[in-house]
Design brief:
It is a single chain. This protein is mainly alpha-helical. The protein contains two helices and two strands, in the order E-E-H-H. Helix content is 76%, strand content 10%. Strands 1-2 form a two-stranded antiparallel sheet. The longest helix has 83 residues.
Length: 135
């Protein structure tokens, strides 16, 4: 069973105690993300004049926007990975078919070479018989 971690973080100038099953480093990373979003929003003209509730709503909307953009990007990566997996499957299938065809062609070439040699031997034998008949 995972161990629950508790750590203090600084968000928006206030010390907050966070706890969860994630590592302390992860919890600090989340706090740093929140601080960067707060800094980003505070640079927007008029943001600091908004009511606290409005600022919280804007912060939540920005975080939700980041979440949905990241989720869409992850979905696109998944789709790309699936397409590459299908392409790799098709390429492997083509490779196997090519190997089977190559083996078939090699066997056919060997059989043709045997037939050519048999025919050459027959020609040599017939030429020898013809020479004997002519002598």
């Amino acid at each position: 069973m995972a161990v629950k971690n508790t750590t203090q973080v600084l968000i928006g100038g206030k010390i907050i105690t966070l706890s969860g099953y994630e590592s302390e480093e992860y919890l600090q990373k989340v706090a740093n993300y929140m601080n960067s979003k707060l800094t980003e929003l505070s640079q927007i003209p008029g943001y600091s004049r908004q009511a606290q509730e409005t600022r919280h709503t804007l912060l939540s909307l920005n975080i939700a926007d980041d979440y949905f953009k990241a989720k869409r990007q992850a979905e696109m990566f998944e789709e790309d990975l699936e397409a590459k997996d299908r392409e790799m499957y098709d390429l492997k299938h083509d490779l196997i078919n090519g190997q089977v065809e190559l083996e078939r062609a090699k066997k056919e070439a060997e059989e043709n070479a045997r037939q050519v040699q048999t025919l050459r031997d027959k020609i040599a034998e017939l030429e020898k018989e013809l020479e004997e008949l002519l002598n």
